[in-house]
Amino acid sequence: METQPKTRIPWPQVASVAAIALLGLGLAAAVARGATDAAQPAVQAEKMPEHHGTVIHVKPDVGTLDTGKRGPQGQVISAPCGSCHKQHSTPPFARSAEDLKEFHAGFRFKHGNIACGACHDLQDRDQLRLADDRRISMSSVIELCSQCHGPQARDYAHGAHGGMNGYWDLRRGDRVRNVCVDCHNPHVPAYPQFAPVQRPGDRFLDAPAPAGGHHE
Whole-model pTM? Predict the structure, then answer.
């Protein structure tokens, strides 16, 4: 019994047929996708504005002491606390303002019944000490204050305490927030009582009388 010889298709012809088939599938998918896109409403791509950030303001003189001297342009000359305290780093340490006889004479303190070492690191006066004995920098004072002043720290986190400059909406610009010592003296934090220098102006009561007549 004779067998029919197998017909072999040349490889270039096979490749051409496969390419045509793939091209046909691609065209069919493109037509289907176009029909789907046409059925959906057109959406214009809107470029959202770049978001800005929040900056925590830190006073440049935090952790320093005013020496009472002024520079050539009248700027305050301050010294780091450690520049003097490193020379007096052995006990006994002062516990209250009444114990200060030589340095910081006349220092006022009215912030609860706590000792200096409750907030300051007695071994390194350029740092603060947390209740769990961790050391933090002077610029991280808000972390120290939050240990005792929980309600204020909660309100600060929500933006209702502390004051700020800039924008609520960070899409419009940056926001600058204060820290505790921007508004409060850390040793006497209560606001002092004072009388305003001049009352605010009133656009009705302070308006000048019209010419040739009086206010009704």
Answer: 0.60
